[in-house]
Write a structure and sequence with these properties.
Elements lengths: L2 H4 L26 H7 L3 E7 L17 E5 L14 E3 L2 E3 L12 H18 L4 E6 L11 H5 L9 H15 L23 H34 L8 E4 L13 E3 L9 E3 L2 H7 L12 H4 L3 E4 L21 H9 L7 E2 L2 E2 L9 H4 L10 E5 L2 E6 L2 E5 L6 E4 L15 H18 L14 H8 L5
Parallel strand pairs: 1-2, 1-5
Antiparallel strand pairs: 2-3, 3-4, 6-9, 7-8, 10-11, 12-13, 13-14, 14-15
Helix pairs in contact: 3-6, 5-7
């Protein structure tokens, strides 16, 4: 579903019955992939962040998951943090409960319990679904001193230079097309050379903390893979790894760097806008926004026995969307998407199965992909992307030839723009999108920035 259809048009605050797309929790007109695959005979489990309305009574065990260890929201990594709340199968655990590892770190904990649940599935002779929802690398960034020290000093070249280095590496790896231009750096972020040595040390440390958080995530995924191999089930397990959005610029270029020992369990560290520019390379804009920097996220698929040999290790250029996941799992699990569930009519699925993509075939997408988040909106239909930030005019880009959204061609292609605007408005009415009333301060007039900085900087 699009989030509005599921009742979570914006986060988990309930706006009341008059605003059905903004109730802040999963509604009963939808089914989770846990519910669908459970009906097919799968052992279903989840670990991690369950940010879909637990305070309203929506918990994993009531939405199709046999086993779960979850947090109702993020905002912590260690058990001594004030926001650290864990629930085992819906029952609150003390953070020092003997069922938990001593001095646990959430990134490791989610994988450890995921493998425990997989053992239960294997013992029950059932196929399994594990939804592993990491809260890393969400703020506040926290990691061990040992992990952080591995990365200190690696970012002193500064955000402009490291962005250029990443851009060149992406081209060398074949991740991006060499014709893609690097957009100009956000002028709201100060030049690295304008910072004092003390400021540079601080920002280097902030990025080192972020890198430590990501490295622990990477190691945890490695632990999961190794655990699957040890259990003899890796070869025929499909792993789909995705990130939910682009780099986070909150709360502007200053970020947050608070606490006696930044990076520990009592500190508050936000990466900030300068490093978000680097994290979103080669795109512009960030989390919250619907330009590519906000919505273009990595997707990695592993399935040793199911992916053709010639496809392994390659890049797939067809776009996929979060709405495609359930359709894909229904296809892989040979399940059926219900018209009715638990006495309720179920909204038809919006997504397209990605199984043909895995096999190297073209997806048969029947409608464009749409976005709306905090008043920022977009439509992707083939090579055309229509996009608008909150209170901004529509822009049109040919993302087949201009993926980094340099040349706005809305005045050159008015017929295409008119068609896509009409499609967006029809979709927004159907999923009950409501007008947004407040924007974010770190965005900027990109068209003005391009004029001031030249069309692109390589």
């Amino acid at each position: 579903m699009y989030p509005h259809q599921a009742g979570i048009g914006h986060m988990t605050n309930d706006r009341g019955k008059r605003h059905p797309a903004y109730r802040g929790h999963l509604n009963k007109k939808t089914v989770t992939f846990g519910e669908v695959l459970h009906e097919t005979g799968y052992f279903t489990a989840m670990t991690g962040k369950w940010h879909v309305g637990q305070p309203a009574g929506v918990i994993p065990s009531k939405r199709g998951f046999d086993r779960s260890l979850n947090a109702p929201a993020g905002g912590f990594y260690y058990g001594d943090h004030q926001r650290a709340h864990l629930f085992l199968d819906g029952i609150r655990l003390d953070n020092n409960d003997p069922a938990l590892p001593k001095d646990w770190y959430s990134t490791d904990l989610w994988t450890q319990y995921g493998l425990k649940f997989i053992d239960e599935a294997i013992d029950a002779h059932k196929p399994f679904l594990l939804y592993l929802a990491h809260n890393a690398p969400h703020f506040p960034l926290q990691a061990s001193h040992k992990d952080i020290e591995k990365f200190k000093g690696k970012y002193l070249e500064g955000w402009e230079e490291l962005r250029k280095i990443r851009y060149q590496k992406q081209k060398a790896l074949g991740l991006i097309d060499s014709s893609w231009q690097l957009p100009p750096f956000n002028p709201k972020v100060p030049k690295w050379d304008s910072l004092s040595d003390e400021q540079k040390e601080r920002y280097d440390h902030m990025m080192a903390i972020y890198a430590a958080v990501v490295s622990r995530l990477d190691a945890s995924i490695g632990d999961l893979v190794q655990g699957l191999k040890q259990r003899g089930v890796f070869e025929n397990t499909v792993i789909l790894f995705i990130s939910d959005n682009g780099g986070n610029p909150e709360p502007g270029f200053l970020g947050h760097y608070e606490g006696v020992n930044p990076g520990d369990s009592q500190s508050t560290v936000f990466l900030g806008q300068g490093w978000a520019e680097v994290g979103c390379t080669p795109f512009w804009a960030y989390k919250h926004h619907t330009h590519e920097g906000g919505i273009s996220s990595p997707g990695i698929i592993s399935w040793p026995v199911g992916i053709p040999q010639v496809r392994k290790g390659g890049f797939e250029r067809q776009p996929a969307h979060i709405t495609d996941i359930l359709a894909t799992l229904v296809d892989l699990g040979q399940a059926s998407y219900p018209a009715q569930y638990a006495g309720h009519a179920i909204t038809p699925t919006e997504g397209t199965s990605l199984v043909p993509l895995i096999q190297g075939k073209q997806l048969q997408r029947k409608q464009p992909i749409f976005w709306e988040h905090e008043g920022n909106k977009a439509v992707l239909d083939g090579k055309w992307k229509l996009v608008s930030e909150w209170k901004e005019s529509w822009q049109l880009y040919d993302v087949q030839n201009d993926r980094t959204e340099i040349q706005n061609v809305i005045n050159v292609q008015p017929v295409v723009a008119k068609r896509l605007i009409a499609q967006y408005e029809k979709w927004a009415e159907r999923v009950q999108v409501e007008p947004w009333t407040r924007g974010v301060e770190w965005f900027y007039d990109y068209e003005k920035a391009k004029k001031e900085n030249g069309n692109a900087s390589n």
